[in-house]
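hey m, so remember when u said the tokens were messed up on ur end? i reran from scratch. heres the input so u can diff it against urs
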Amino acid sequence: MEEFKAMWEKEGKKPEGAVKCLIIAALETVKEENPDGKKMWGMVLPEEEIDENGELGTTQTQQLALEEFSRQVEGTDFKGGIAASYLGGTPDNGYAYSYDNKIVVDTKQTKRGKTETKLFVRSGGKDNASPVLLTVNDDGFWKITEYSSLFTGVQHIETDDS
């Protein structure tokens, strides 16, 4: 958790970094089953989206996000392939990913402002970039306010059974 917090304090000051932290929080929660995973989500979401423990809340939307990120992509042997697709995962590499990879943003579609930004984030498993809306707080951290397109499906891995 301390390692993630240090990363958030550095990366959370940039919209791309905040999205990367959300993706890592999703992977830590659904793939690694890290008990601190939901607290990681709590760092990247606005206060109204987290519960009294500083964790991902229990609203229908938040639970849908968790459920969708938890889906297993056909052809993989782990949950979290959708999240992995933003950190280097593709159908061709079995949705292998690395936390060292950067989030890829479609700069032609992205709209940046001083207090609000809409990034279009590339996935290795989707044809189109996914929009993510962020707002900067008083401390200079970018909080993710809309991210439902991130957890939509990705291409499955072609196998002999497909």
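this time it looks ok to me. The longest strand covers residues 130-136. if urs says something different then somethings off w ur setup not the seq
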